[in-house]
Amino acid sequence: xxxxxxxxxxxxxxxxxxxxxxxxxxxxxxxxxxxxxxxxxxxxxxxxxxxxxxxxxxxxxxxxxxxxxxxxxxxxxxxxxxxxxxxxxxxxxxxxxxxxxxxxxxxxxxxxxxxxxxxxxxxxxxxxxxxxxxxxxxxxxxxxxxxxxxxxxxxxxxxxxxxxxxxxxxxxxxxxxxxxxxxxxxxxxxxxxxxxxxxxxxxxxxxxxxxxxxxxxxxxxxxxxxxxxxxxxxxxxxxxxxxxxxxxxxxxxxxxxxxxxxxxxxxxxxxxxxxxxxxxxxxxxxxxxxxxxxxxxxxxxxxxxxxxxxxxxxxxxxxxxxxxxxxxxxxxxxxxxxxxxxxxxxxxxxxxxxxxxxxxxxxxxxxxxxxxxxxxxxxxxxxxxxxxxxxxxxxxxxxxxxxxxxxxxxxxxxxxxxxxxxxxxxxxxxxxxxxxxxxxxxxxxxxxxxxxxxxxxxxxxxxxxxxxxxxxxxxxxxxxxxxxxxxxxxxxxxxxxxxxxxxxxxxxxxxxxxxxxxxxxxxxxxxxxxxxxxxxxxxxxxxxxxxxxxxxxxxxxxxxxxxxxxxxxxxxxxxxxxxxxxxxxxxxxxxxxxxx
Length: 596
Prior knowledge:
This protein is α/β, with parallel strands linked by helices and 596 residues long. Helix content is 43%, strand content 14%.
């Protein structure tokens, strides 16, 4: 039976919660929680690993007991231990612990005494006074739980990074401007790790006058609620409903503080366990010898990691899965950076649904220091996005070629072409053959079942003119879920056909997502980082795509548009059956970085 990593992760998360409700061993509870987080971050499907006979215990955070349960789930579709836990507890009690303010003991009490198994039931019991009457609760606790329920209904608990990062940067810039005593100020937490969605915005820093900085934060016009106000820590809720935590530490220990609050929790757990074996303990203040009780402080994170005998581990890699092993074996990747990009291959102008004329988009690409760019206005498709008819496209091609004569960068003629519901392309083969770059994308019939969508994408990949598959899953963060398809089959087909896959840097998309890009890299699939810009000011959003690639352990040699103009043109001008040989040769050349 095929079960997704997300389903396995959720099952173990639920098992941890059920054990916590029962009051079981904290070590067992944490083991399930760690396994859930690890599985959720894996790039490869566990079901495939089981089929191939992989020893799952080699995966950090997965021991024999959890490995056996994964195999049981894969074989039978159930986990008997989980079923027994459900039978032992009141029906629906698991859903109650998702409500902030209701811990495991309270959830069990509500389930047993009131027979409630839903958020709606809890809300009703608050209204009629039954919840407040339970032992150990009272009206104040009931009112607090009600506020949490109302908050759940009005706000997604995580904020897309495209909204959180500009807000954090605006706050940090304003605080620095208003408070000259600020010496250091950095984002931490999931924002510094460039996760696609953010819980709270964490800012950590050093200041000669932390009280002034705290006052400046609570006084910002965007702040609508102050939760905590102090010199060491201040927490506020800023528009549009994002919590911002500001912490200040001492200069001598700032490296340890930044490392601690950057996380991830799983990374810090693994690091702590590693340090324990060295006779050391870690916290936000430094590293302490368990033998002598002496604590060492660290100005920088690099010094903190060096004390543990480790190279610096960049925040994007701190997931708690493979990075510590790679650090110990001296095989951390030389991650791609924005300065490595030589071009953008997915740009729109006012000819379709962009905001700017072609000339302005070319100027923006020149300003980025690029060697090449591709203009890829939409095909006619379903008649939306002002897509170009074949006649308009040919007219545009002629204009682009005339512009090339006096242009310092190579302008490639392209199009973002709709993949129709049957996998055929939205332009004729004759028209497609006139283009330098074809970005084939799904924009319709997104509700197709997994098998149909998989074959649809693969058919497009097999077209001789398709260069890149754009925003593979079609998702919009917080707005539209991804389509369903067999990722492994699609990635293998991309490799087989020499079709590149796009890491779409638009912060609303981030598609490929990091774990998909990680798996694509493992399989040797060519990747490109494009901004899908519809405005000349959006080309610098490539940093979001770079972050996805870095979380996927990508080096420059894994990204096609880090290659020089000559190298990239060699790739796209080679017939598709032979492109993979060109890519493999380019990425293994001495000038392209480290080992595979």
